[in-house]
Every structure is written in structure tokens, then in C-alpha cells.
Amino acid sequence: MIEIKNVSKNFPGKNKAINELNLTIPDGKIVGFLGPNGAGKSTTIKMMTGILPIDKGSITLNGYNIEKNALEAKKIFGYVPDQPDMFLRLKGIEYLNFIGDIFEIPKEIRQERIETLTKQFNIYNALDDYIQTYSHGMRQKIIVTGVLIHDPDIWILDEPLTGLDPKSAYMLKEMMREHADKGNTVFFSSHGLEVVEQLCDEVAIINKGELIFHGNKQEIREQFQSDQSLEELFLELTSDE
């Protein structure tokens, strides 16, 4: 479970990026995080993962405060950033072993997971190549593999399907569903509203740093008394007019 309580974030010279955000992401569900560009999605996720400091409020992951208990919190989540351009000077296998070392994954288990996942994502034969030679989609796959090999309880994914081929995207969506069905937490942001509508149990919508809706798809339609698609409702909710 992820609990965000009264969280605010300011950047110098700009309007408040996040304003008194309260959001609980429960176990056993896939929660989609939606909002227009600049709404505060990535800022929220970066505070959840400890990349950005929190100006006000608190965030806990399975009871661990991301600022007060940072090490314990970071052991239990896996994070896929919106830009996979990291560790470019490492080979694919070096990066995955680096992640394995950080999370102290036994070598036998590590090797099995690396082989299984990279074959599923069709990057097994590229593991001895440097990540800087990978396409965007391959970089996304290696980052996702790095998250999955330590089998974290909580998945925090920022636009995880961007750049993936249809087969890999389908596979990751199946993995997300299986992970949530085991009682774990999956929280992901996406611009793909159709994916969110098909995959998510709950939707959280943020606009201009404020949460404007959180609930399941039936609740959003009941609240706004509408038979519109999620896309139409989203556009209506986030309209500046």
C-alpha cells in the first residue's frame, strides 16, 4: 500500500506543482495515474520514490516513510522512470547484475530470472551489448527487467509501455495483472487512456497539482452521471475552460 498524505511541492519561480495531495493506492489493485502534461504526475512519482524531496506532508510505502525510512522503503518497490536513458555505458548484463548486487539476489535465482525475462522481452541476445547501442524500446525493456528481477512488492511505473512493441507491452500488462492479483501494489502513469480503461481497477486523475478524482471506472461514471468513455470524461475533467 502507498499512502500519500497532505503532500505539497513547490519549484522556485513556478506555481505550486503539487497542492495538498491525498491518495491511497491499495494492495491487490492496479491504479492508473492520469493527467495532462505538466499536471504533476512525474513530480508525484519522483517524491514517492525519494528522487525529489517532499516540501510538506508524508509518503509511506507498506508502512515505511520514504524520507525517514528511505533504505527500507526503497528495498520494497521497483521503479520504471519515464526516460530509460540510464547507465548507458554498461552492457545489458552488467546493468542487471548491478541491480542484482544492490538487492542481494542470490546468483542462481538472479540468473534464472534474467534469462527468463530477457527471453520474454526478446533482448537476451543483446545482453553483451552496451545499453547506449540499444533502441528506446530495448532500453525500456532492460529497465523493466531490472525492476522485475528483484520481485518487489510495489511497482511504480512512469509511462512503462512507451516504446514497447505490442508483444512486450501485452506481456508487461499480463505481469502487472498477475502481480496485483497476488495482493501486491501496481501504480502506473500513462497517456494511453484505452490501456488504463482496459487494465486498471482504479483511476486517479490529477490536474494542476490537485487530485480531482480517485475511484473505479464505475464510480467516475456514477459521479458524473455519464456513459462517456474514460477518454471523454478525462478530457472534460481536465479542460481549462
Descriptive report:
- The chain is α/β, with parallel strands linked by helices and 241 residues long.
- The protein folds into 2 domains: 1-76 and 153-165 and 179-241, Rossmann fold (3-Layer(aba) Sandwich); 84-151, no CATH class.
- It is 37% helix and 23% strand.
- The protein has 9 helices and 10 strands.
- It has helices spanning 41-48, 70-75, 92-102, 107-120, 136-148, 166-181, 193-199, 217-223, 230-237, and strands spanning 2-9, 18-25, 29-34, 56-61, 64-65, 77-80, 154-158, 185-189, 202-207, 210-215.
- Strand 1 (2-9) and strand 2 (18-25) form a beta hairpin.
- Helix 4 (107-120) packs antiparallel against helix 5 (136-148).
- The mean pLDDT is 90.
- This is ABC transporter.
Write out key terms for the chains shown.
single chain; ABC_transporter-like_ATP-bd; AAA+_ATPase; ATP-binding; 2 domains; ABC transporter; Rossmann fold; four-stranded antiparallel sheet; ATP hydrolysis activity
CATH architecture descriptor name of the largest domain: 3-Layer(aba) Sandwich
Strands of the widest sheet, in order across it, are 6-7-8-3-9-10
CATH superfamily of the largest domain: P-loop containing nucleotide triphosphate hydrolases
Q: Determine the fraction of residues in helical runs and give it as a percent range.
A: 25-40%
The H/E string reads EEEHEEHEHHHEHEHEEHH
List the helices and strands and how they pair.
Layout: E1 2-9, E2 18-25, E3 29-34, H1 41-48, E4 56-61, E5 64-65, H2 70-75, E6 77-80, H3 92-102, H4 107-120, H5 136-148, E7 154-158, H6 166-181, E8 185-189, H7 193-199, E9 202-207, E10 210-215, H8 217-223, H9 230-237
Parallel strand pairs: 3-8, 3-9, 6-7, 7-8
Antiparallel strand pairs: 1-2, 1-4, 4-5, 9-10
Helix pairs in contact: 3-5, 4-5
